[in-house]
Amino acid sequence: MAEKVRVRFAPSPTGLLHLGGARTALFNWLYARHNKGTFILRIEDTDRTRSTEEYIDAITEGMKWLSLDWDEGPHRQTDRFSIYKSYADKLLKEGKAYYCYCSSEELEKRRQEALAQGKSPKYDGRCRNLAEPVSGRIPAIRFIMPQEGETVVDDLIKGKVIFDNAQLDDLIIIRSDGTPTYNFVVVVDDVDMEITHVIRGDDHLNNTPKQIHIYKALGYRIPAFAHLPMILGPDKTRLSKRHGATSVTAYKEMGYLPDAFVNYIVRLGWAHGDQEIFTRDELIEYFSLEDVGKSAAVFNPEKLLWLNSQYIIDSTAERLGDLVMPFLLKQGIIKEGQILDKEWFSRGIRTLKERSRTLVELADSLRYYISEEIEPDPKAKEKFLNERSLPYLIDVKEALKRLDNFIAPEIEKTFMSVVKKHRIKLGEVAQPVRVAMTGKTESAGIFEVIEIVGKEKTLKRLEKAIKIIE
RNA sequence: GGUCCCAUCGUCUAGAGGCCUAGGACGUAGCCCUCUCAAGGCUAAAACACGGGUUCGAAUCCCGUUGGGACCGCCA
User: Fold this and answer.
1) CA–CA separation, A350 vs A467, rounded Å?
2) Which of A99, A258, A260, A273 is buried most deeply by CB count within 10 Å?
3) Which of A36, A241, A303, A379 is catalytic?
4) Contact A72, A38 (CB under 8 A)
């Protein structure tokens, strides 16, 4: 390895950071970290009408949430227009580019006609050999593509891909308004930033031969390419808004842990034997482009949910406590400034870790520990808070009232005495009590719930349930 | 329409010609555990798209078919 690896993630700020972008960023980041190289963030905002500051913030925030830290940037292409201009002038002077006076309306019309006739809608090169400027028109600048021979893209993932140059057309590198276009700036920037490996989605594979010719015209060495397969929605089409949540921010808000999310998307197109769960360090150690698959992957929310639950189980109660706080606030379970006893809070979380798949679910369960009052779910109330369970509830309440050592094992003993007295199964008393305590038919172990809720609130909740029945 | 890419259980994937009676994971079903729900454990159903080659031998190599996807902008 003679040369230091330099890679970049180059999103256009025309939307939030989506799944596919996040994975492209992740693979670039992993490649850089694995090879002790440099990871650069570059904002491709040459399309000024669609790019916004808000989206730039959203993208960097998404990356921060995933802990994908960059070493250089964010560079912004709008800050670099003079660089592109000078390269374009150079090409013009060397006869490798020319002014094109066709209007976008004319171009669009010709394109539609060609398509309608089933022909390839490529530019016919009519301005290529113009002797005189067309007066009254502001020209765009086109790059001259070779029309013969073939271009080979030697891709690290797809292998050798051969393109016929005859299908390439002279592409616009500078618009008539003077702004540069994507296929041009991407090359200039990758050259200027000394990018060694271009790792991006395979929707760019067809652009690559054009870019290779620009590299050549500029007299630069061509970087290595690695085209990542797409991530598709459940209907196997490209992931888009209609597939529901596609931005990383949405997953943050749904209560996913960033490490679980990263673990999920890294396995879309990459594998390391049979291993499913990886620490960040393992990812960096194992990651290799050779292990990236060629075929597109369908996004599967169920598996992400499972991974998230595994990450929750493996997290400490203290960390989960910090993570769940914003959700408790948002779900109205605690108020701003409300202070919870740390030890008590962690105990509660420990009982809920393995039954919460997301932080939203965890917060929701925490409600029955934290809230003063419990509103029983109507169905649960109907099924368990009735005449039949009334005597059990009364006996449990009375027994607990007499209990001083209010800890789970002692609470269990009081339940067993009620069970013995009525010759019933534990479930017959546990379920009504659960509904009284949590409002639901499922929860953490009932003795632990009672211990954590505490004697005072427990008695209140039982009394309330008894009152409901009577 | 043209060009390019891709093809193993429903989904993510392991698989570099014999270790494959095709492995793991999610999901699904059943059982165990059990105060509920989970978690955990065990078990089951579930795939090499199809057709030709090459080879002693093919999920693996080649060709074709079919199917899916991406791109063909003064978007990126």
Assistant:
1) 32
2) A260
3) A241
4) yes
Nearest to A418 by CA among A447, A442, A441: A447
Q: In this structure, which long-range contacts are made by residues A133-137, counting pairs with CB atoms below 8 Å and at least 24 apart in sequence?
A: A133/A99, A133/A101, A134/A101, A137/A101, A137/A103
Helix (H) or strand (E) holding A411: helix A408-422
DSSP string, A27-72: HHHHHHHHTT-EEEEEE----TTT--HHHHHHHHHHHHHTT---SE
Please report, for residues A33, A87, A218, the alpha-carbon distance to residue A192 in angstroms, rounded to integers and kept in the order given. 21, 11, 11
Locate A469 and state its tokens. 């029945």
Distance A34 CA to B25 C1' (A): 25
Q: Which residues, at least 6 apart from A109, have a Cβ–Cβ distance to it below 8 Å? A: none
Tens-place pLDDT, residues A200-245: 999 999 999 999 999 999 999 999 999 999 999 888 878 777 776 6
What is the rounded end-to-end Cα distance, in angstroms, of chain A? 80
Cβ–Cβ contacts within 10 Å for residue A302, how many? 7
d(CA A153, CA A212): 8
Instruction: For tokens 């929605």, name the residue.
Output: A233
**A383 is annotated as an active-site residue:** no
pTM: 0.94
* A150-155 and A159-164 strand pairing: antiparallel
pLDDT reading at A1 higher than 50: no
The gap between A283 CA and B8 C1' (Å) is: 25
Complex-level ipTM: 0.94
- Nearby residues of A321 by Cβ (< 8 Å), 6 or more positions away: A342, A345, A346, A349
From residue A244, how far is each of A19, A105, A250 by CA, in Å? 12, 35, 10
Query: How far in angstroms lies nucleotide B56's C1' from the CA of residue A157?
Result: 34
Q: Which two tokens stand for residue A114?
A: 């060609």
Q: Which nucleotide is nearest to A164 (CA to C1')?
A: B3
Nucleotide nearest to A408 (CA to C1'): B35
- A73/A269: higher pLDDT: A269
Give A258-310 pLDDT, tens digit per residue: 999 999 999 999 999 999 999 999 999 999 999 999 999 999 999 999 999 99
